[in-house]
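Have a think about this chain, tokens included, and walk me through the fold.
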Amino acid sequence: MTHIKEYIRQNEPRFLEEWESLIRIPSVSAHPGHRPDIEACAQRWKELLLAAGADRASVMPSQGHPLVFAEKRIDPAAPTVLVYGHYDVMPAEPLELWHSDPFEPEIRDGRLYARGADDDKGQTMIQVKAFEYLVREGLLRHNVKFILEGEEEIGSPSLTPFMRANKELLAADIILVSDTSMLAVDLPSLTTGLRGLAYWEIEVTGPNRDLHSGHFGGAVANPVNELCALLARVVDEQGRITISGFYDDVEEVPVAEREMIAGIPFDEEAYKASIGVKALKGEAGYATLERNSCRPSFDICGIWGGYTGEGAKTVLPSKAFAKVSCRLVPHQDHAKISRLFVEYMERMASPAVQIKVTPMHGGEGYVCPITLPAYKAAEAGFEKAFGKKPLAVRRGGSIPIISDFERELGVKTILMGFGLESNAIHSPNESFSLDVFRKGIEAVVEFHLRYSERSL
């Protein structure tokens, strides 16, 4: 039997070639013009899953972008692991901030740079290569299924309806996901909780056309001014969200968990330096690692209106726009929060303007018990590959489909992610460490071996 480290060493050139073949396909789900790329990426994943040892793989239609399904059946009586990933990526803009072509992968200083290097083509490739090794070496003792979607970056609108229509196809005993991050390479961690999400687009309309600011300024409400003032009121000076009823379902973090969070090694000065800020800001009474994982938040994700071209134009704009989001915590219903926000904005807006708030996408938070056999198997996987028992931590990001898995399929999810903050997902110069890529494969192999021991 070939040891996993030797298997990776022997096959790494091929692994990289296959990984890069996916990255070269700009599967940006947010842009309709990339529909052919989405379909091409799905087909490429189908080919790679079959080559890795799946008994069958297919590209399946949905209400939106296609899904890739594959499976390997070992024994009908054995448990089944369902591996979830996504093959769509965020837009690469602003392109001028990239040091290399975002869709032409480049290896520098032991890292692969490209859009999707981490999120989620790199992390999904870790899962597929671990699976490949287990199949080829005859070590797989349970059934494995894969479901890869092309809409995660736009809120997974089609996956839940697909789940409802294909519950038998997706039936499993546990779901395994690599789409989260670790605290550090020398501080491995398993994600035990995620925040939920609610997202809106706002349109504020004033006069029926752009006006001369000299003739009308001071007499007519400026939509940009009104929108800025309105959004500034959503969060108070203590960092609390002012929407009535917003905190009704927020569960206070237990003292024991707050103590565990406080014990996580965290260098606040290094944290500030890494993102280029002189001070941090957030909800009063909570530490930074609580604010960005266990507490809700509100952010303006984009705002625009009026003249933004070169030079000056004295204009009072007719319209202003913003995209805003809330990160939610477990027990907050994103649909309820979305309704409360729309009502709040409509109530608080000045009668001098018209406001339209359009809910976009959202999802619930998620918490995973650390007593699950599958969690213990993942814990053993990290310890084997990284040399340390991983910490159990909640993360501030959202994967809305995770709570849907539990609701629709009745199955818990293990969040076995290998990303790092330095990987800059969703930002220019996204990258992934080749060393972590190798260790990730080792960890997932060990997960499957330990899961078989605990479940059979």
